[in-house]
Amino acid sequence: MPDIVRSVIAVLAGYAAMAAVVVALTVIVKRISPAWAGSEATPNAPYAYTNLMYSFGAAMIGGYVAAVIGSHAPLAHACALAAVVLLLSIVSAVQIGDRQPRWYQLSLAIIGPLGAVIGGWLRAKI
Asked: Which residue from 38, 57, 59, 35 is spatially nearest to 101, judged by alpha carbons?
């Protein structure tokens, strides 16, 4: 398989892994405590902090997956995933606007890329 194809697959798989973990944990949290989760447009503080924690973990998993598949340059693939996550965070923040607190949007834009890089770094060190 050509390196570029493998690289694209690595980043897409990392993003898919990250998204799957976030979706699964969001469903679990909302089923366990629907009132606690608040609305998606305006998350309440406990849900926002919980979401930030598991989003960071999901980003680490995504970075790790990208690094495993892009094994010829594991950290580069995790950084590519981090760049995609940052870009999508910015797009999301612009679309959502003032419906979510800016601190929450900014936190997501920081912890997503950071988690992806840490996940890739962990894979590179193994």
From this structure: 38
pLDDT exceeds 90 at position 29 = no
Euclidean distance between CA atoms 33 and 116, whole angstroms: 28
What are the DSSP calls for 95-118, one per residue? HHGGGS-HHHHHHHHHHHHHHHHH
Would you state the pLDDT for residue 58?
A: 98
Instruction: Please tell me the distance from the alpha carbon of residue 105 to that of residue 41, in angstroms, as a whole number.
Output: 12
Q: Please check whether residue 107 is in contact with residue 56, taking contact to mean a CB–CB distance below 8 angstroms.
A: no
| pLDDT band, residue 57 (cuts 50/70/90) | very high
The Cα 51–Cα 45 span in angstroms is: 10
Specify whether the backbone of 71 is left (phi greater than 0), alpha (psi in -120 to 50) or beta. alpha
- Tokens standing for 55? 């989003």
Q: pLDDT exceeding 90 applies to what percent of the chain?
A: 75
pTM of structure: 0.92
As beta bridge partners, residue 9 has none
Q: If we measure between CA atoms, which residue out of 57, 92, 67 comes closest to residue 13?
A: 67
